[in-house]
Design a protein that fits this description.
There is one protein chain. The protein has helices at residues 16-24, 52-61, and strands at 2-9, 29-35, 40-45, 65-66. It is of the alpha+beta class. It has a single domain (2-66), classed as 2-Layer Sandwich (Alpha-Beta Plaits), CATH 3.30.70. This is HMA domain-containing protein.
Length: 68
């Protein structure tokens, strides 16, 4: 299992549930934690089921910008 943290531009308190749902929809996710105050999301996932690009693409497809 891998855990990665990344920042999301334009991410606000009202977006937390939506971002969590977006990330949980990616196959292989074990845990998601979001912090709109810091603009961060942390994802723990099975690297055999999902790749980091799957998460960044899911976030980008939802209209947010991933910053690392």
């Amino acid at each position: 299992m891998i855990t990665r943290t990344f920042s999301i531009a334009g991410f606000h308190k009202d977006d937390e549930a939506r971002v969590e749902e977006i990330l949980y929809d990616v196959w292989g996710v074990r845990n998601v934690a979001v912090n709109s105050h810091l603009g961060l999301a942390t994802v723990s996932f099975d690297e055999k089921a999902a790749s980091w690009e799957d998460f960044t693409q899911a976030v980008a497809d939802s209209g947010f910008e991933v910053n690392g």
